[in-house]
Structures are given as C-alpha cells and as structure tokens.
Amino acid sequence: MKKIDFKYIYSHSFLFSLKLAIENNEKLINEIIQQIYQSFEQLRQSLLNFESTNKISSPEVCLNDLNQIFNRLIDLKLNNYSDVMNMFEIILKNYLDLIDMNQFIDVIAHRYACKSNIVFASFFESLNPEGALELTHKMPIKVRQQTYYRILDQICSSKRIHSFLNNELLISIDDKHIKRIVSNFCELILILVLKILNSLNVKLLDIELKKYQNNLFIPFIKFIDEYFLTSQCSQHDVLIRHILEFLHMVSDQPLTIPIFINAKCPQACLRWLSLPYLNAYEYIHCLQIVYNIARHDQGVIILNECQCYSVLMQFNTDILNNQMDFIIDKNWYEDLQLIYFMTIVLIIDPNELGAESTDWYITYRLLPVISTSMLSRTFRHRKFHISEFMIILMKLCTNDNFIHSISTKKKYELSQDMFDSLDFLLHCVEIERVDYNFLSLDVLTITASANILWSISFHDRYKDKLIENIEIINRLVAFESSDTIDKVLPNIYIPRHMSPLKRAMDGILQNLYPKSNADLDIGSSTKSKSVGSLMISYSHVDIDFCRQLYDTFSTIPELSISIDFNSGKYSWKDIAQTIVQSDLVVFLLSQNFFNSKSCRQEFIYVTDTLKKPFIPVFIDTEYEAIEWLKIRINEVKHICFDENDFLNICNQLISMIKENLSLNITVTKNTFDIEQWFHKNNLMLELQEFYQFQTGNELLLYAEAILGTLWTKEYERIRTRFEEKFKQKQLCLSPHDFLKFINALNALKSKNLSSTA
To answer: What range(s) does the TIR domain occupy (predicted)?
Structure first.
C-alpha cells in the first residue's frame, strides 16, 4: 500500500485556504467600495433634491449608512497598504466633491453638522491613522510617489479647500456659525491629508511640484502668515502645526527649494521668527524650513537679501537664550541650537564666524551628533542625516583654524573617524542599496567627507594619518570611476562649495604625493615665441568677472589664453598640464577664490611645486588675503580692480604681463556691437534677449559649442522656453528663423577664423 504524504496534503490544504481567504477578503473590500460609492451618490442626490426627499432617502439616512460602513471598516482592521490607501483616496475624493456642493452648506452645515462630524470621525478612525502611517512605509517607492501626487491633485482640485486656505470661504449666507462649521470640516480634511502625505516620505523634485506652487504652497504660506500676524493662537493651531510640518518635510529635499523661493517662503519664515508669541513647535518648524532653504545656493542668496543673519541673531538673543529652555525638553532645545548654528554656517563665510562661539557649537552640538550618527545603523541623529552634518563640517574646514581646532578635540579624531565612517559607507554603496534615497544620501556623505579630507590634506601635520589609510583612499578613487554616482546624481543637490568626488580625490593624491612637471605628459609646444601663453585661475562663483576679463584679453593677438570654460578642461590632470605649459598664471583673488579647494590646489602648485611666475589680481576691493594665501603673496606685486575704471586697470595688468613675458602688447576695447549684428543679419532681436549675449566673444563661444551638433537639437531644446518667455508677445520660434540664426553664426565663425589666420 502506498504511503500517504501528510505533509504534502497539509501544505496544499494550507495554500488553498490562504488563497480562499485572500479571494474572500478582496471580495469583501470590493463590496465595501461599491457601498461607499453608492452611499455618497445617494447623499448627493438627497442634497440636490432635498425639498422633495422622503425620510427613507434623507441626508440623515445617507449619513447613517456611511457611518455604518466606516464602523464596519473599523472592525475589519485593514492591514494591507493597498487596501488602506485605495479606500482613503476613494473616500477623500467623495468628501471633497461633497463639500464643493452649495447644498453641503445649505443642508448639511445648517441641519446635520453634528451627524456629519460623527461620520467623519468614524472615517478617521476607520483608517486607523497611526496604523495607516505604519503601512505607508511598506509601500514600494514608486507606489508611494504616485499616491502622493494623486492626493495633492485631489486637494488642489477642491474649490472649497482653496477658498478656505485663502480665508475667502464662498458661502451665500453671511452666518459666522455656518462659516465656522464649514471651516472646521475643511480643517479636519486637511489635517488627515497632511498626516498621510507627511508619512509617505517620497523623493520630490522642483519640476514635479511646480504645478502645485500657486494652488497649494502659496495658499499654505498665506494661511500661516495671516494666522500668525493676527495672533489667532488657538483656532487653527493643530492645522498650522501640520502645514508647517509638511513644508518642513518637503523643504528637507533641497531640489524643491526653488518652489519655496517662488512662493516667498524665505521672507515669510524670517517674518515669523521675528514674532515674540509663537509656541515652541512653531518656532522649531520655522527655523527648520529656513535651515533647509539655506542648504540651496539660491536660497542662501535670497536669505541674505532678507537680512537673515540679523534676524537669526535677534532670534537667538530674544527667544532661544531666554525662553525656549523653559518650553521644551533638553533634546529639542539642543537640536534647535544645532539648527540655528548650521543655518548661520550656511549663510555666511566661515571666516566671519566668531572663533569662541563657533568652537562651542562645534564642541557641544556638531561633533556629538556626528559621532552619534556614525554609530547609527541608518546614519541618522533623530531626523537629521549625517550628510547634513558633513556638509556643515566641510564648509567649516575651508578655514584652517577650525580644522586645527576640531583635530584637538579629545573625543573626536577628525581624519580617523572620517575614515571609519567612509569604510562602512563604501561597503553600503558597493552592495548598492535598493532604495535610491538611501544610496543618494550615502553618495552625498562620501563626497562631503572626501572634500573634508581634501581640506585636511593641505596640512603636513595630518598627512601621515591620511597615508596610513591609503587603502580607503584608493577605494574612493575606484568608487568614483563606477557608474553609481551617475545613477544617483539626478536625485541629489550638490551645493557650489562642494567639489565633485573625482576632483577631491585628485586633490588629495596631489597633496599626498605631489607631482611636478616631470611627472606630466606635457607634449610638444607649438606656440611661437612672439606669443605668450597665459592661464587664468579663478573661482567659478566669479565667472562673470572672469568672462569680462577674458573678452578683453582675447582681442590681443600676442596672448594665447587658457581658461577652463573655453577649453572644457576641468580635471586636475588637464589643469596641471595647462599650468605647466603656460608662461604665466593670473590668479583672480576674492573670498570665493580663498574658499575654493580647487583654487588653493592650483595656487600652491604654481607657487610651491613649480615656482612659476604669477600675478595676483584682487577683483574685490574689500577682500583682504589671510592664512595660506597671505603668506604666499605678501611680497608679490599685485593688481586691484575697481569696477569704475576697468579698462585702465586692464592696461596696468597688461603692463605687468608684458614685463613678465617680454612682449609688446596693448589692450583695446572690444567694439563688437551685438545688436547691430542681429539687425545686419535680419535676425529676431528676441533671440539676443533670450540668450543674453553681452560680447562678440560670447557669441563666438556659443557658435563653437553649437555648430558641432545638429541645429535641430538646439532648436528643440530652447523652443518651448523661448515661447514661454515671450508668451505675452505671442511669439513663436519657427525652424526657419532659428536656421537663419545658425547660418549667421556660421558666417561669423568663418570670418573670425580667416581674420586670425
């Protein structure tokens, strides 16, 4: 007799039962969804036909039916994220459609307000918000993102919600009691929606959020502004807190900051921080939003235009030092001090920071949270990721005094702790985390850490420690050449004071193992002795001045000028070769130049390694050289530019170049008339306004770049933006008009080549 396999029978029986349970659950969910649709439709019909509605189909009966459905959902205890979010979106849409009806006010708000609130409370409980928030973390990233934008679309589509946020509730009867009922209902919906949105934790981009700028972000900011400035400190306090948390969480992703700038959020937040009567949570969220805005370069510009530093200093004196320690617990208070300090570091130059107070914040606020984050499995200290702290440390380390100060702290060994965290981070990225959000933050932390190590590597006293960890440095070099960075680069924001990982690694290796001109493959020089080769070294923040100087010098046939935006050479190997091949280097000195590690590398390579002739040119009359820069130019003849006398100072600079290179050269003003060129070639003048060409050389540089590719690609690239810019004129850019422009550029380029041959 054949032996019966009971394990086989049991396993198949279990799978069959599980399948049956899933099918029954799906059937039940579909039935409930159908009932929800039917009940809301019956409620709408009963409101539209209220006068002729009988008791069986009255609004009260419909509300009772909905209440029973929601109570059934409470008993059901949904534990599948798909079911919960699907149910939430369906009910939300129906509720928003309902409150947009005039009959909602005429009937529900007048007669059934209490019953309606009970039903909504059941809806709120049926979702089990705390449980729903837990379930959102189990949702796939793409599903979370799609859900997030669908909910935003629903909220923005509601006229009643929009009028509520603008304090313009459209109600036919001027009844304060009814307005309060409708207002409370809108508020409850928004609180629930914001709870869900804040829990979804999705990756956001400026381009994706732009369509919500006018319908959501501006109304939110206006709503908070009116609430704070009218001192209504109780009516909407819960909603205000949720809106602030929403703005804080969205702004936590720097790529979204242009939306906040367009919505005038920086100005509003600074205004709110100046008020003396906000509560602790409101101050904290406002300061966190300002800090997030300061993480974006454009945000820093706007904040400084709004006197952010003065506002924060006053906030520190009036609020932070006097009140907050009595209002909130120690951890919150310390975090608030940390946010305040990090914001200050981001908005002003590190060399302007007070040494004593900065050292206190570094010792008791910044370094402890870096250590805590390094020990955390997620690299977080509460809501902060370690990448945020490393970017602050990176900016501080542009000042040598802060590097030495940090390195002397007993509990924090700067370079070794950095290598320990890098070792683990490299392990994380080498196995490629599935979640690109985590991977992006890992790459950002690695890049910031490499920038810090680059700053450290300029100092002989730390080089032995770096060389001891050369294996990790080599792993960083190998990681930089992988495709991981290219994958995550579109998802992260790189501030301008952070150099790319490759540039940082090249800089570290150059400082540890200096290469001279003998180590470089220079190639043979074909330059005539009658032509002097000149390299211009500058900070990219000062590119406008550099272009102006280049445009002037490019008219001089006796000079062959090398500059990165013309040559397209940005790697250290290319830069070093250019320096070696040049007869003379001109350094455009400013605070931006001093803060740039790339500029420091180039300067030291010229002065210390090659001992090559150079000319220091101060392009900011208020800047005074300090530290490593001052030591090397103390006894060197230099030039100071005054914007009011540009051409005369150019002549002085030319005299110094002539003296160094033994050339007979003079400078002449570039007289190329851009507007005349457009007129002469019968081109659309709006193209000049669109591209904003300032000089003939800029026109030639553009021609060089564009004529090597298909003109149709450039046409498609700019056509939409051109037509958007000139929408009021109703101008279209036709292929024919653009081709005329391309042909004129071709002729200009050919003419320029023949004249210089």
So the answer is: 535-630
Q: Kindly compute the dihedral angle of the four CA atoms of residues 515, 521, 526, 528, in this order, to the nearest 10 degrees.
A: 10
- Mark whether 642 and 575 lie in a shared domain: yes
pLDDT by residue (tens digit) across 130-179?
566 677 777 888 888 999 999 999 999 999 999 999 888 766 556 778 88
Residues 736 and 703 in one domain: yes
Tell me the C-alpha distance between 116 and 46, whole Å.
14
Q: Alpha-carbon distance 421 to 429, whole Å?
A: 12
Q: Contact, 735 vs 715, CB < 8 A?
A: yes
Contacts of 650 (CB under 8 A, 6+ apart): 549, 552, 553, 667
Per DSSP, 518 falls in state: G
Q: What is the pLDDT of residue 116?
A: 82
Q: Is 322 helix (H, G, I), strand (E, B) or coil?
A: coil
What's the pLDDT at 109? 78
Say if residues 286 and 244 touch (Cβ distance below 8 Å): yes
Are the beta carbons of 170 and 159 closer than 8 angstroms? Answer: yes
Name the 3-class secondary structure at 339. Answer: helix
pLDDT at position 593:
95
Is there a contact between 156 and 162 (Cβ–Cβ < 8 Å)?
yes
Tell me the C-alpha distance between 26 and 396, whole Å. 57
User: Within 10 A of 735 (CB to CB), how many other CB atoms are there?
Assistant: 12
For 287, counting Cβ atoms within 10 Å of its Cβ (0-12 exposed, 13-18 middle, 19+ buried), the class is buried
For residue 249, give the nearest of 200, 208, 305 by alpha carbon.
200
In a domain, 593, yes or no: yes
* Residue ranges in the chain whose pLDDT is less than 70: 1-25, 52-56, 78, 127-133, 170-174, 231-234, 323-328, 410-415, 432-436, 516-530, 643, 664-672, 704-705, 708-709, 752-757
φ, ψ dihedrals at 530, nearest 5°: -80, -5
Residue found under tokens 């829990």: 199
Among 549, 542, 534, 555, smallest CA distance to 646 is for 549
Rounded-to-integer distance, Cα 720 and Cα 733, Å: 9
| pLDDT tens by residue, 469-522 | 999 999 999 998 888 888 888 788 999 999 999 999 999 999 999 876 555 554
For residue 559, what pLDDT is reported?
A: 86
**What is the value of pTM for the model shown?**
0.82
- Asked if residues 606 and 585 have their Cβ atoms less than 8 Å apart, the reply is yes
CATH number for the domain that contains residue 599: 3.40.50.10140
Strand segments (E) across 462-577: 532-537, 559-562
| CA geometry: angle 169, 172, 176, nearest 5 deg | 60
Residues 149 and 38 in one domain: yes
Question: CA neighbours within 13 Å on the CB side: how many for 319?
Answer: 24
What letter would DSSP give residue 644? G
Q: What is the residue range of 27's domain?
A: 16-201
469 with 536, same domain: the answer is: no
Q: Could you tell me if 404 and 444 are in contact, meaning their C-beta atoms sit under 8 angstroms apart?
A: no
Burial of 395 (0-12, 13-18, 19+ CB in 10 A): buried
Within 10 Å of residue 122's Cβ, how many Cβ atoms? Answer: 19
Q: What is the DSSP string of 529-571?
A: TTSEEEEEE--GGGHHHHHHHHHHHTT-TTEEEE-HHHH---S
**Phi, psi dihedral angles at 258 (to 5 degrees):** -55, -35
The type of residue at 682 is: N
DSSP state of 389: H
Domain boundary among 201, 225, 260: 201
DSSP 379: S
Q: How far is CA 282 from CA 186, 247, 336, in A?
A: 21, 12, 12
Specify the DSSP element, H or E, that contains 587: strand 584-589
Question: Is residue 215 included in any domain, yes or no?
Answer: no
For CA atoms 457, 458, 464, 467, give the dihedral sign.
Answer: positive
Domain boundary among 201, 218, 238: 201
